[in-house]
Amino acid sequence: MATAFVAQPEVTFHKAWSTRSWLLARGMRLVIRPLLEYLPLNEWTLARLHLFDFAGSVLPLPSGASATRLAHAGCDTELVVGDTVSPDEPGLILYFHGGGFVTCGLRTHRRLVSRISTAAGVPALQVNYRQLPAVTLAQTVSDCVEVYRELLDDGRAPGDIAFAGDSAGGYLAFAVAQHAAAEGLPAPAAIVAQSPWIDLACTHSSGHANSRRDSYIPLRKLVQIAGLLAPADDPLLALHDADLSALPPALIQVGANEVLRSDAELIAGRLGKAGATCSLQIWDRQIHVFQAAADLVPEGRAAIAEIGSFVREQFSANSSHRTLAS
């Protein structure tokens, strides 16, 4: 009987940390974590959390970047083109924003996505997928799969598309790739996940020491959101137990003290068992999705540079394969 191939994820621990990142983490713990801890998740607040996206309007795009509103498969989308990037580049990052499936959107993530676009040298398409309480988790995933399907139907090569996302969007990057494979769609060139929330039932993170160390994400709030996403026995809550064998190379970045570090390590290990290629980067003392704070902390800029290099490498590898095949 043949032995199944098990790939070991490449794990890198970034030990260096700056005074700025330490100050940011302290500030988040003192101010933001208490606010999130006691924010009630009731019908009234859920119906209004989407308004937080408008706060992102005060964040200007970096000089030279642009954002154009579009629509794909019934979803509002936004093409973000970083500084020095041509909108005609064949490569494209399909980006799923974070926000715990209840908040944030195109505006809050525009600046982060533009930085990633610049680092990778290709445009990025943000997806304004539907969120709680308007839809179920299954419908959210379906929104994103259909956007990918439309890109393929429009003639874009799967090897020219990379999925990326942060937090809940990191989950979607993996879930969309997994569901696309199950539906017979080709895999994208790569997946990039920043602080992904993978184990939506929080069974692994609940016993982790980081549930107390995280600078601003309260585990209790994640558990509350999980109860709203889907029934407890829904396989969507345990993406790590799905068939991941068809997934492309993945890069995962997470802060060492994050409550979601266990999720990052979990999905990296499961990808390895499935024979998929995975690189896990653990960044010392960095907050949840610290890449979004790249204007403040050098670690955010360094992590985005790593993302850009990874995406370029995967696009180059797929381009080489197509050249050899022809």
Tell me what the structure shows:
The protein is of the alpha/beta class. It has one domain (10-318): Alpha/Beta hydrolase fold, catalytic domain (Rossmann fold, 3-Layer(aba) Sandwich), CATH 3.40.50.1820. It has helices at residues 19-38, 43-46, 106-120, 137-153, 168-182, 210-213, 219-229, 261-273, 298-325, and strands at residues 10-14, 66-72, 75-81, 92-96, 124-128, 161-166, 190-194, 250-255, 278-283. Helix 4 crosses helix 5 (168-182). It starts with 9 loop residues before the first strand and ends with a helix.
Please outline what is shown here.
The protein has helices at residues 19-38, 43-46, 106-120, 137-153, 168-182, 210-213, 219-229, 261-273, 298-325, and strands at 10-14, 66-72, 75-81, 92-96, 124-128, 161-166, 190-194, 250-255, 278-283. The chain is an alpha/beta fold.
List keywords for this structure.
326 residues, alpha/beta, Rossmann fold, nine-stranded mixed beta sheet, globular
